User: Fold these one by one.
Assistant:
Number 1:
Amino acid sequence: MPTKMNYRLRNKPKSKHRTPLISVLVLFVLLSLSASFFPKAVRTGFYDVSRPLWSLGRGASKSFLNVKNFFILKSALVSENLSLQDEISNLRLKQFDYGVLLQENQDLKGQLGRSAYSSRVISRILSKPPISLYDTFVIDAGSSDGILLGNKVYSSDTIIIGLIKEVTSHISLVQLFSSGNQKQQATLLRTGASFILEGQGGANFKLEVPKETDVLWGDVFVYPSLSSSVIGSVYYIDTNSQSAFKTLYLRVPGNVFSSQFVFVEKNQ
Amino acid sequence: MSSTPIRIIIFIIVFALVVVLPWWISILILLALTIYFPLYLEVLFFGFLFDTLYSVHFNFPYTGLSLTAVFLLITIFFKTQIRINRSKIND
């Protein structure tokens, strides 16, 4: 019985996708493996290359701002100057009060056997949102400056913004509490009740609580520790008559993304 | 001038732009280059760069790397389809 054989035609086209697919796959695997086996070396290498570029970018944006400011009207500058002088005199008074209260607070803690003193490292922000896609800050202090994983990061004396999540010798990565879907425990300063805030990105938080919970507009939430560090304050409360819950929207005080420096609290 | 030196120069420029510019501008630039070049493998490197510089969860699946890989594969597939259709039209 004759058998029928099928031969592959010489001019039969091969899959057009094969070579590109293999190239993509190989490169993907190579990059993944390099990150898995040498995460520290890869990060350090990229940070070392990027650092001069970040400095260059900061310089360029500064000179661009100078050019823009050159065209501001004199009358606008005079009125802005006057309002700023008023603000400065008010802030000086508040700073005086703050200094007195801070000293009193630290003295009281000292008398109770707990010291709230901590050393902090000032650090320049190299990269931040919107350059960073992940709501993280890259700062120019690392393990050589005594920074460790989990150190707290502040934008001012009392405003805490996140924790150190990655450290190389000269650069660290800060994850903000407000990063998307990040959960952070916080205490309501006025009542002492504890809640878990949900990060929404862009220095915003969301919190859903039963309708009868005692929370007001402007209420301040603090980081649960001996010294009260502000995480955020309520700027909007969404109450729906149909729902048994209300949604609180919080924001970190001040504009975190416009600051150039942060303070990292070192472990004692 | 052959395409390799051009690709290297573009790579250096894009690297600087990705590090300095806001992420959404960087993504637009990368999208444009992926569509323009026949097989822009460098986009995988830039996705990986995003993960390395800014991501805290630096473990598999790497978000930036995975997204750029998926986008590159989609682009490869669609580009081939478009060329086939073009050749059919010419026939």
Number 2:
Amino acid sequence: MGTVVHILSWICLTGGACFVLVGAIGVLRLPDFYTRLHAVSVSDTMGAGLVLAGLMLQGGLSMVTVKLVLIFYFMIFTGPTATHALAEAALQAKLKPVVDDREP
Amino acid sequence: MEEHLINNVLLGLLMMTGFAIVRMKSLLAVTMLTSIYSLLSASLFVVLDAVDVALTEAAIGAGISTILLLATVARTTDEEKAPRHKPLLPLFVVVATGAALIYGTLDMPNYGDPMAPIHLHVAPTYLHVTPEEIGVPNVVTSVLASFRGYDTLGEVTVIFTAGAGVLALLGYRTRRRNSQDPEIRKMVVLRVITKLFFPLILLFALYVQFHGDYGPGGGFQAGVIFATGFILYALAYGLGNVQRIIPYRTLRIMMVAGVLIYIGVGIESMLLGGKFLEYRILADDPVTGQHLGIMLIELGVGITVAAVILIIYYGFVSRRH
């Protein structure tokens, strides 16, 4: 039992780290503000969420897990809101997205 | 081993952020980088097991000061002015100071050395005496509020003086009730989420305030988090609406009241026949007295810190462009 939970938690932690890494690569490689924002939101939601899930499995049924659930609740609300607010602000500042207008 | 690795990675990132701050010309980007710098230092404090300091650094360094700097940049310019003088003299001063500091570290004891003077002076007494005489699980709180009550009173007075100084320099102008950017009015998601989280942030501030005896936290951190809640509300709904909740006049009274509560606890213990800030005299049982005294002075600290930060924020934002 203990080993299975341990392995599961490490799968979650590694998966979360991978999503954060993908988000970071995206910020560096993608061409304009909106697509970069899209990359950041991946590490905000899936990355942080999976890392928190992994930590919850490590914590077991304890006060630590309750606090982690609260942090998770906080993250799933604030992350997308921040992304949305940034995109909205960029749109209102008339920042044009880079569009591929070549013929398909 | 892992701890050394984490420490070195964090210190390396700190150094890179420092260089980036020096190289950048856009003050907006520099503001965000200073926020990252604070967050990295907060992580470093967590690795060093200084959780109370980390909480303060994250709340003040990465939170409040970023907002205040952004408010300043928004009201002035975000372009760094080119210096008129040659950079040789500042470079020399920085290199000389840095060399002196590094020379100073050569005499310091090794990191984590149990025989270092700092671990042999008063720290053992604090650790030994806290469980019996004060009964507070978080030794940081007992040192800050009880053993070093005078120092903390000094710190609160410094914060109060800073607030009074900003008040004298910036002044304050009343704004109309709905003076708010029309763009933000359109951001429905932001406004709804702010309304949802505003009470939760205040609740968390109260938790940090009154749970400081048991876990990391206390008046300084709680005051900052409290002020952050109101600043978030002001960002989404405009300064005018926040002033309906906490008017400027109330803040000025709160700023003074916090310091007065602190001094009042000290005078009360003198009136009861003890020394200044001798809490154990406050109740029949010395441990209960310590609890009461710590709770009251932390409350005073929290009130003053929250009021000063909000006063500074009001002062910055109420100014015209």
